[in-house]
Write a structure and sequence with these properties.
The protein is mainly α. Helices cover 79% and strands 0% of the residues. Helix 3 runs parallel beside helix 7 and helix 4 crosses helix 5. The longest helix is centred in the middle third of the chain and has 27 residues. It is globular. The two termini are 27 Å apart.
Length: 183
């Protein structure tokens, strides 16, 4: 198992490095690794993020699943890193490469929908996470097609994901990941 994970990570690192070497600025931009449009993308996502956070607390209150503790602070710091990686792997690589096929290129709607379905399926078997990430990926795919910036998308993914866990899902990812080490 460890060998396959290592091989998988090694393959993607090789791919990223090769893309960075070939016409570096163009390819890194196509994959969403350009820091351009940071403020513009953040301002586009901010209203959705605000509405999402309010919705999370309302749903969490109704379901009695709000589980806030000091553990949320390190998760709000660390989870955006994983969010950036996920956004790059799914939106940057999948949507970015689908949009740049030379033959039989799918339209933007199909690219965004396929990417959102894939992103939702990655969170199986938790149906709340599948639904949440599907909706998030629809918006993110739309924004990504115009801005090509996975950094802002990843930051918001991490922050919204952390709050989603602690409010709607009622889980504590800090305990799940670091419980054996710190608690």
């Amino acid at each position: 198992m460890a060998t396959s994970i290592y091989s998988y990570c090694h393959y993607w690192m090789d791919y990223i490095c090769s893309q960075a070497k070939q016409k570096s600025k163009r390819n890194t931009s196509l994959l969403g690794l350009s820091p351009g449009h940071f403020k513009e993308v953040a301002l586009k996502i901010l209203p959705f993020g605000t509405i999402s956070v309010i919705t999370f607390f309302v749903v969490g209150y109704k379901l009695d699943t709000i589980n806030l503790s000091w553990h949320i602070i390190p998760i709000l710091i660390l989870y955006p890193i994983w969010g950036i990686i996920q956004q790059f792997l799914v939106i940057g690589l999948v949507a970015g490469n689908l949009q740049h096929l030379k033959a039989k290129r799918p339209n933007t709607f199909i690219t965004i929908t396929v990417t959102a379905i894939l992103f939702g399926l990655m969170h199986y078997p938790d149906y709340w996470l599948m639904a949440g990430t599907f909706i998030l990926a629809l918006l993110y795919g739309y924004i990504y097609q115009r801005s090509r910036n996975v950094y802002v998308l990843g930051l918001f993914h991490g922050w919204l994901g952390a709050l989603f866990y602690y409010t709607v899902v009622g889980r504590d990812p800090f305990v799940e990941v670091f419980g054996r080490l710190f608690l």
